Amino acid sequence: MTVGMAVLAGGVGRRIGRPFPKQFLLLGGKPLLIHVLEKARDLEEVEDVVITCPEAHLAETVELIRNHRLGSRFRCIVGGATRQESVYLALRALESTDSVVLHEAVRPLVTLEEFRALIALPDENATYGLEIPFTVLKGHDYVEGVLDREELFNVQLPQKFDRAKLLAAHEAARQAGTEFTDDASLFVTHAEGRVRVLPGSDRNVKITVPPDILMAEALYADMIGRRS
């Protein structure tokens, strides 16, 4: 079985309040994207890595990969207008692979062990997820109901899927005009198959808003301290 990886690097920095895409933010002196790609480089199971990025930053991303000497397995493509479109384009670009691992450039603290556990899992389709430790209500201006948090979890990447089945699910979503912010939900809606849930990690944070940077810096410093 051949394994490919799609790294989503399509952010433009609006919510983070910076004039450049957040995947270029530095953590420990290194761009967030490079933290992810260096781990991908160490995964001998992964044969092909596609990075989706904005067209305006394609050359910059290519140069960044070249400067860090990541190797010939890594290539960039222009992503879509939405996350879903970017995944679809990456799946098509990874046509020679059987299984695809999805990850986000703005989750730099993912570990090699998490990638390897996901890839080695017998299940074709899987995601990481975190239990929700707080009460969740539904409603708009007023409370309309209570959700059972025992039946909920917070989706976390990386994820893996049978590439052909996920691509077919994306094709079905395009036909139906449905939009998703995560591929596990897209898959269970438009494909026949189950998605296994693995226990996630509080350290595998997603950099979305400014306070996330401070959290990531503290977690990264702690991780470096544990290794020394």
Chain-wise SSE layout:
Layout: E1 3-8, E2 26-27, E3 30-31, H1 32-41, E4 46-53, H2 58-67, E5 74-78, H3 83-93, E6 99-104, H4 112-120, E7 126-131, E8 136-139, E9 143-147, E10 153-162, H5 163-176, H6 183-190, E11 196-199, H7 210-227
Parallel strand pairs: 1-4, 1-6, 4-5, 7-11
Antiparallel strand pairs: 2-3, 6-10, 7-10, 8-9
Calculate the mean pLDDT score and round it.
Answer: 91
Q: What is the number of helical segments per DSSP (H or I, 4+ residues)? A: 7
What shape does the CA trace take? globular
Radius of gyration: 18 Å
Instruction: Quickly give the CATH architecture.
Output: Alpha-Beta Complex
Low-confidence stretches: none
Sequence of strands across the biggest β-sheet: 5-4-1-6-10-7-11
The CATH topology label is: Spore Coat Polysaccharide Biosynthesis Protein SpsA, Chain A
Overall strand count: 11
* CATH homologous superfamily (4th level) name: Spore Coat Polysaccharide Biosynthesis Protein SpsA, Chain A
Structure, explained:
The protein has 228 residues and is an alpha/beta fold. The chain has a single domain (3-227), classed as Spore Coat Polysaccharide Biosynthesis Protein SpsA, Chain A, CATH 3.90.550. Helices cover 35% and strands 25% of the residues. The chain contains seven helices and eleven strands. The chain has helices spanning 32-41, 58-67, 83-93, 112-120, 163-176, 183-190, 210-227, and strands at residues 3-8, 26-27, 30-31, 46-53, 74-78, 99-104, 126-131, 136-139, 143-147, 153-162, 196-199. The strands form three sheets. Strands 5-4-1-6-10-7-11 form a seven-stranded mixed sheet, sandwiched between helices. It has a two-stranded antiparallel ribbon with strand order 2-3. Helix 3 packs across helix 5 (163-176) and helix 5 (163-176) packs across helix 6 (183-190). The longest helix has 18 residues, at 210-227. It starts with a strand and ends with a helix.
